[in-house]
Write a structure and sequence with these properties.
The chain is α+β, with helices and mostly antiparallel strands and 497 residues long. The chain is 38% helix and 25% strand.
């Protein structure tokens, strides 16, 4: 499915009224039929209108940078409100039935391609080759369409990457200015300038850097309001990640342009830039596993202000490998009525095909169908065997992971402990070797320490297994462990619920 933001829709609208009317049509359920091609380049909607017959509106994304809209309504605006409504349907993640790309659309694509090819040849006559008179080797039927689609897709990828590089260059200039002048200069007119840059990044197909810049702006604004050091430290961390992303992504995109590579690869930079993986793409990369078995250890909901969306997060143990993984269900604020919220799951899930996202640390997983069964004592015993016994070794590994600016801010682990107690007023976990790690409430996450203190059964605090997340605390300047769930021989005690 095409990834479209409301900002992009409004940018395409001929005027604000058209955008508002398109949104109303979508919200009121004006479409009686929604269809799309298998390659997600063609979308069709049948929309109820003021006339006797329904209107047919289409959106052609064969060139993502320059979508083409058509509608049977009498409006002279392009795109009309019905076309914009179709975009809102796509943004909301509505269900589209698969369909073939109409022949007239394929002909229009081919006509446009030939026109562009002719123009290119006129600019560079030397590029023309002797085609001869033999036409017997030309592909026919669907193969012609496939070849044309592939060529158009390659051209679109090239244009997109060049546009992304332009946006990254603008971002690099901004980051250099801040690094030279200091974050303290980010105020007043300067802050407004960077807010404007953030809006522009959407036009450069850089939602990932855009979100980081928005997060940076939010932390600076919070610091200016209350002067708390934690906001300044978090802003520095975001700036460091933004700088690393700009440098690595620039090299990544330049290499792809030079080698004319396809979009698909296993680099986490694709997602960091804002790309959205399809299950079929992950499957094609070989980033999947058959007959997987997961057990949910924790579940919580976060609100990401920079993204303006809720994220339903499940923390799971892979019962086959012992690895901790995450499932993430993203619910944009503007599409809450269309995206169903997920909830805690207290069973074990058997999955026929599970996709694993590229990256390091605690990796994201996704699947479409799974069978849920009650958790057994045998499975709980298996969970406990996967717990690390050395706090010192896990802390060292976490420090090495978290010091990378591109890493996720939390690394989730299962740790076997001898006791959870206190040093002064600070909760602390100790393993059987006497090594300790301070426990803390992770910033921007739901607090759990108070619920840990309220546990009435003291046996839960001795010789058990704790699921938690390592994170670097900007205030205390040390590594802490955020407690999530205690796994006993009898069950799982969740501190988040």
């Amino acid at each position: 499915m095409q990834q479209i933001t409301e900002q992009q829709i409004l940018a395409l609208a001929p005027n604000p009224a058209a955008g508002a009317n398109g949104k109303k049509i979508s919200q009121k359920g004006g479409f009686v039929r929604l269809e799309k091609s298998a390659d997600d380049t063609f979308f069709l909607g049948e929309c109820q209108g003021s006339g006797k017959s329904n209107y047919i509106t289409t959106a052609d994304f064969v060139e993502p940078d320059a979508p083409v809209f058509r509608c049977s309504c009498p409006s002279r605006q392009f795109p009309c409100k019905h076309s914009l409504a179709l975009l809102y349907e796509i943004m909301a993640g509505k269900s589209f039935k698969d369909c073939e790309i109409p022949e007239d659309i394929l002909k229009k694509r081919e006509k446009k391609r030939l026109k562009e090819e002719k123009a290119a040849q006129a600019e560079n006559p030397a590029s023309q080759t002797d085609k001869g008179d033999d036409t017997t080797s030309k592909p026919e039927g669907k193969s012609v369409s496939a070849a044309k689609s592939a060529k158009s897709g390659a051209a679109a990828r090239t244009r997109k990457r060049k546009k992304q590089l332009e946006g990254l260059a603008l971002t690099e200039k901004m980051v250099r200015e801040l690094l030279d002048a200091g974050l303290g200069t980010m105020g007043g007119a300067t802050l407004s300038t960077y807010k404007e840059l953030s809006k522009q990044l959407g036009d450069y197909y850089l939602p990932g850097p855009q979100r980081l810049l928005n997060r940076l702006i939010l932390e600076i604004e919070a610091f200016q309001e209350d002067q708390r050091e934690v906001h300044y430290e978090k802003a520095l961390a975001v700036l460091e990640k933004l700088w690393a992303l700009v440098k690595k992504s620039t090299a990544y995109l330049q290499e792809k342009l030079e080698n004319k590579e396809e979009e698909l690869d296993a680099s986490p930079l694709y997602e960091e830039l804002g790309g959205v993986w399809k299950l079929s793409e992950l499957e094609a990369l070989g980033s999947s596993r058959k007959d997987a078995h997961l057990l949910q250890l924790a579940f919580w909901v976060e609100y990401e202000e920079a993204r303006r969306e809720y994220i339903d997060i499940g923390c799971w143990l892979d019962m086959d490998t012992g690895e901790i993984c995450l499932s993430c269900n993203y619910r944009p604020v503007k599409a809450l009525k269309y995206v169903k919220q997920e909830d805690s799951l207290f069973g074990a899930v058997s999955i026929s095909s599970m996709q694993i996202y590229p990256g390091e640390g605690t990796r994201r997983v996704r699947w479409e169908h799974g069978t849920v069964a009650e958790v057994t004592k045998e499975q709980l015993a298996t969970v406990r065997t996967f717990a690390a016994e050395s706090v010192a070794a896990e802390a060292k590994a976490a420090k090495n992971y978290l010091k990378n600016a591109m890493s996720a801010p939390v690394l989730y682990r299962l740790i076997a402990f001898e006791q959870i107690g206190r040093i002064g007023e600070t909760p602390v976990l100790a393993d059987k070797n006497g090594a300790t790690i301070y426990l803390g409430d992770c910033p921007d996450k739901e607090p759990t320490l108070q619920r840990l203190r309220l546990l009435t059964d003291r046996k839960l605090l001795e010789n058990q297994v704790l699921l938690g997340g390592f994170y670097y605390d900007a205030v205390s300047k040390r590594l802490l462990f955020w407690p999530l769930s205690i796994v006993t021989e009898e069950g799982i005690v969740r501190l988040l619920y």
